[in-house]
From TrEMBL:
GO terms for molecular function: methyltransferase activity. Residues 145-320 form the Methyltransferase FkbM domain. This is FkbM family methyltransferase. Keywords: Methyltransferase, Transferase. NCBIfam families: fkbM_fam. One of its GO terms (biological process) is methylation. It holds the Pfam family Methyltransf_21. InterPro entries: FkbM_mtfrase, SAM-dependent_MTase, SAM-dependent_MTases_sf. The keyword tRNA-binding does not apply. Coiled coil: none annotated. The keyword RNA-binding does not apply.
Amino acid sequence: MPGEPCPLSVVGEIRPAGDHVTHRYRCDPRAAAVTAHLLTRPGLTFPGIGAPRRHVFTAPNSSPPPRRTPLQPALLRAPAGGITHPSLRERPVDIVRANDLRVLGDDGLELYAPVEHEANFQYQEIFEHECYDQFSLSESPTIVDVGANIGMFTVFAKRQWPGASILAFEPVPRTADYLCRNIELHGLSGVRVVREAIGERVEDTSFVHYPNMPGNSTRYPEDKALQVSVVKERHPDWDVTAQYEPEYLTVPVRRLESHLSGLAHIDLMKVDVEGAELEVLRGIADDQWDRIDNVVMEVQDLHGRMAEIRELLEARGFRCEIQPSPMVYPEILTYLLLAQRGA
């Protein structure tokens, strides 16, 4: 019967459909690049979305089928018509795996993350050290998160300020999938995800993604040499080279001014973009700076970068304070820059 599970050894159809096929709808219904995700067992393949996949399920040694966990979809016959949204028919399947659900910290925060050790690092940095929570904001602030990664700061900000409106940018498609999944997992409202990099010019640019260290993905992989060297020296037993095995992507870059035009006021702008901080700031129009109250940035001070950033912000009316990054080895030269308007 349509809508019923198929018995073992009976040919059935799998049609991905419904609200939970693609979490990108939850993040931004207007997104042009919609990708479906499936939480599924290894070994199932889908030749494309839009046509059913016929498959026969059998149990080895006539044992009963494994029980489905709450994070695995039931395999049901979909009603006639299947998927109707054209973007789902055209896009490949991305997988956010059920076993990527991590439990972090003493409070048991649940988040989807592709790499557990990096998720723990981010949790300690953001939730325990509260490195970004250094400003007094209103009950319903507007926050711009440039370099949102998997959404650790987004979840933190919505816990601190439940009424916050957040505009979050993440250009790496797979990382943005985790960001959207975590927004859905926590039922966060008032968050919009933009799948773009932010820079000084409108362009498409090469981008290096590190699948084993996705939070380090960057437009400037040459800047990672110091970090790799320090980590190798500190941890000679680690296979650091494998941790930084790259994938090469092309991502869209847009100026931040095009996204700020609809925002009357920005209480906090958080920037964590692995070397592209100046480009982010230079992409803000001169007449938009007065709308921004506070800026917090993670900056690796290479090539005189910190001095340039500080000069730019002070010229626009901010008082700047620089602190060591609480979770990064000091010889990597990474700092937090806090900028407050008129303080």
